[in-house]
Amino acid sequence: MKAGTENRTKTWVALGLMALALLSVVRSLIGTPAQPAATSPTTTTANRTQRVQQRGPRRGRPTAPVLEKTSVPRVRLDLLRVSEETKYEGAGRNIFRAEAEAPIPQPLVPPINRAQTPVPTGPPPPPPINLKFFGFANRPGEPKKAFLSQGDAVFIASEGDLVNNRYKVLHIGVNSIEIQDVLNNNTQTIPLTQG
What we know:
- By secondary structure, this protein is α+β, with helices and mostly antiparallel strands.
- The protein has helices at residues 8-30, 41-55, 77-85, and strands spanning 132-137, 145-150, 153-158, 162-163, 167-172, 176-181, 186-191.
């Protein structure tokens, strides 16, 4: 058996297609033929720019120099100068949001009535003590102990003890307990709560 000779037509078509592919690759690597020396890219671009500037802007749009395709890349200083002179004139809207932001409402300040003098209210009241008294225990020969809770924490304290490094137990009664907030020097009586 001979490889590739079974169907000569398919072999010739494959060779022709490979030749076309090779030719297109070579042509793309080499590039387009150079322009004739009579017209240089800078003079052609300069002539077009002059013609556009003579005609003036169309419908209020600023004119930009016309770009010409060349085989030799060059830095276009005239385009850089135009882009440097362009000033951004934003509309004050967030460019990252599709919809416009609603204006921020300005607070209305009531006029000051100079005839009324403000009444001094004094210092604010101390914060309430947020302990709950839910029971006590007493054994013969020992002082009474109270059961107090604050949130999920449960404390057992005798008279004179500090609870949570802030509250001092002054007196434990049958139906209430007297607590002093040592930070604010505030004393409150907390009743016995059921369940």
